[in-house]
Amino acid sequence: MDLDSIYQNIEPEDVKDTGGPQIQSQSQNEGQTQKQRGSTCFMWMTVCLGMICVLLLVSIIVQHISITSERDLFSSTAEEFNQTINSLQHKNTELTLKKLKLENELRKLYKQGKDRFFISSESKNWSESRQYCRDRGGDLVIIKNEVKQRFITSFFKQRVWIGLTDIQQEGNMKWVDNSILSQGFWEESEPNVSGGEDCIEINPTSPVLNNWNDESCSSMRKWVCENVTSVPASS
Ligand SMILES: *[C@@H]1O[C@H](CO)[C@@H](O)[C@H](O)[C@H]1NC(C)=O
Ligand SMILES: *[C@@H]1O[C@H](CO)[C@@H](O)[C@H](O)[C@H]1NC(C)=O
Ligand SMILES: *[C@@H]1O[C@H](CO)[C@@H](O)[C@H](O)[C@H]1NC(C)=O
Ligand SMILES: *[C@@H]1O[C@H](CO)[C@@H](O)[C@H](O)[C@H]1NC(C)=O
Ligand SMILES: [Ca+2]
Ligand SMILES: [Ca+2]
């Protein structure tokens, strides 16, 4: 078949009047729709991209804030920790020094021991005990610090008299050298009987820094003398 016969077979009017323009307008419509679709799509893509940008920005800001606050929290915690460590170290140093000082003083007391202190093997009431010491150039022991309290207590398993009494004036505790009591190593809820118990004993079964008791002066106890004159007095 040649080209002429093909064209002849198609009626030109039919093509022109019916199919032609319709097809043309359809494809025009389709083009417009596609254009519209394209711009809508482009709009959505822009909106999406915009939203993604906003989200990213927000997440970056949030992360920055949380990192900053975490860092602040961390550094303030570290500082507190540092302060705690420093104060503990400081306390530790103080305690170590105090311990060394106590040990040194205690060693000194033990060294002076026999020259300075007398420990009775018999028992007497308080005033007789005191008299015994005075007859030998000393007096009942005076305890004005922790070291001496520990030292004296360490020698006993039984109760002993010390040189403290409120026999002159009720409630006014005085040492045998007439000085007033400033630091006491009392047992819990002692001294307890105002009038009837005026002489002070150490009860070695109680904790070493809480073992003093006021007791009736006529009770029989062992005792401790101290020669304040034979050694430079350090109370
Ligand atoms: C901790 O404290 C010490 C002494 O005060 C100081 O030298 C050090 O820089 C502090 N360290 C921190 C992490 O704050
Ligand atoms: C106290 O000193 C006197 C006189 O120097 C001495 O006779 C006595 O033995 C001493 N007592 C003690 C416990 O050292
Ligand atoms: C007072 O202390 C003595 C020991 O000195 C004790 O035997 C007595 O029960 C105490 N009395 C009171 C009322 O707490
Ligand atoms: C202490 O004992 C002596 C001698 O036994 C006695 O004369 C004195 O009255 C007693 N003192 C007290 C307070 O018991
Ligand atoms: Ca009393
Ligand atoms: Ca008592």
TrEMBL record:
<keyword id="KW-1133">Transmembrane helix</keyword>
<keyword id="KW-0812">Transmembrane</keyword>
<dbReference type="Pfam" id="PF00059">
    <property type="entry name" value="Lectin_C"/>
</dbReference>
<dbReference type="InterPro" id="IPR001304">
    <property type="entry name" value="C-type_lectin-like"/>
</dbReference>
<feature type="compositionally biased region" description="Polar residues">
    <location>
        <begin position="21"/>
        <end position="32"/>
    </location>
</feature>
<dbReference type="InterPro" id="IPR033989">
    <property type="entry name" value="CD209-like_CTLD"/>
</dbReference>
<dbReference type="InterPro" id="IPR018378">
    <property type="entry name" value="C-type_lectin_CS"/>
</dbReference>
<feature type="domain" description="C-type lectin">
    <location>
        <begin position="117"/>
        <end position="226"/>
    </location>
</feature>
<dbReference type="InterPro" id="IPR016187">
    <property type="entry name" value="CTDL_fold"/>
</dbReference>
<feature type="region of interest" description="Disordered">
    <location>
        <begin position="1"/>
        <end position="32"/>
    </location>
</feature>
<dbReference type="InterPro" id="IPR016186">
    <property type="entry name" value="C-type_lectin-like/link_sf"/>
</dbReference>
<keyword id="KW-0472">Membrane</keyword>
<protein>
    <recommendedName>
        <fullName>C-type lectin domain-containing protein</fullName>
    </recommendedName>
</protein>
<keyword id="KW-0430">Lectin</keyword>
<feature type="coiled-coil region">
    <location>
        <begin position="78"/>
        <end position="112"/>
    </location>
</feature>
<dbReference type="GO" id="GO:0030246">
    <property type="term" value="F:carbohydrate binding"/>
</dbReference>
<dbReference type="InterPro" id="IPR051004">
    <property type="entry name" value="DC-SIGN_domain-containing"/>
</dbReference>
<keyword id="KW-0175">Coiled coil</keyword>
<feature type="transmembrane region" description="Helical">
    <location>
        <begin position="42"/>
        <end position="62"/>
    </location>
</feature>
<keyword id="KW-1015">Disulfide bond</keyword>
